[in-house]
Fold this protein.
Amino acid sequence: MDNKKRRKTRDDDSRIDYGIILSVMLLALIGIMSIYVAASHDPNGGSALRQVVTQIVWYAIGVGLVAFIMQFDAEDLWKLAPYAYGAGIVLLVLVLFLYSRAYFVKTGAKSWFALGPLTFQPSEIMKPAFILMIGKVVANHNNEHPVHTFKSDVKLIGKMIGWVLPVLILLKLQNDFGTMLVFVAILGGVFLVSGIDWKIVLTAFGSVAILGGSALTMVATDGGRKILSKLGFASYQFSRVDNWLNPSQDTSNSGYQLWQNMKAIGSGQLLGKGFNHVDVTVPVRESDMIFSVIGENFGFIGACVLIFIYFLLIYQMIRVTFDTKNEFYAYMSTGVIMMILFHVFENIGMSIGLLPLTGIPLPFISQGGSALLGNMIGIGLIMSMRYHHKSYMFGDTKTFK
């Protein structure tokens, strides 16, 4: 290899963020181990080896997607955004008619395609597509209105709501409230860094807090529940809030899963029982309740190590954002960070009883191909930022067509 090729190889290596790769690999390893433990002790879960191999295959596909997405620079992603968003909307519409009947009976949600033994949740792929689109919308608006005024800020808010509203309506029709919250979190993160006047930001977040508090207050009263029922809230959603507020009130029916999950985490105490030592039965543990495996096997210390790895991953993504110095990249990375951060916060929060159950998986760890691919696409977007940041360090989105 001559000197020119050596320099090119070193240059390519410097553009790859190995810190992010290491963090994701550690999470993947923890996920595979946890799925094996959960499936090994689930009498209705099937072959543990088969589930582990399936997850590894999904990881391999995800790695391929990361490598593929890394080839797209900022201008490519800018042009791709509306097509990705449009394709995502089409899939969200199609799933309302072609949803898996078996999953609908099991979960009450029309959010899954089923092709033989394979299942696919289009909303997971819609997340990075929406992130691209909302990043483009905000960057384009700020280029057209370099000086923020009340009128321009209101116009920007209207644009952001206009792009997220179709997604939320379609998810509502699918009866997938948990995923709706993820899109709201993504929108909230981009809204926070979009340059909108802080008075409007505080008013907006205060209004959301008041609305959420009012909804919880209404759940606690019969009259409030009647009003929420007319607005589309289902009885199982009320049960989830009841079980969250009082986990011990119903430990044999609707609250059984949460109660067993909390028992499993608590039984791990400080250091855990050791790998593959399970004494507490938790239904469907390998997906939404995977954190209970870590808590029971590795205790409080193991859970803290997991959270620290997530912290490192988020920190490294934030660092990439500051290094690239590109407005479109900044909004895109904010969306990815909020997507992953909200998943971690909600999943672990609901596992330890701090938040109501929502069916949101733990990123890179919970079993499931759709969620894993959605998160890996997000990682691919961040890796693309690092890979192309020299070309677009001072990029101006006005030049993108």
